[in-house]
Fold:
Amino acid sequence: MKFGIIKERKNPPDRRVVLSPKKCKELVNKFPQFEIKVESSKDRFFSDEDYKKEGIEVVSDVSDCEVLLGVKEVPISNLIPNKKYFFFPYHKKTSL
Structure:
């Protein structure tokens, strides 16, 4: 199964990540049937080079991945049809 870590496209950009480079490597080592690709981004906390150093492929296109992971929701115009998305948006708690 191929997982893609997408770059964040909301404004302002979010620097957080769903998986660190070391965690990606750990998962791929533990589950050899998993493949993880990281969409190139200049905004995230970890650089593309940080992922490459751990042996994780950095790409410009994650459309061949079955499951896409991100921090915030994806703008509708950037959704890739027929993919499973998991994202972890932050919702500020408000009182009435």
In short: The CA atoms of residues 81 and 87 lie 16 Å apart.
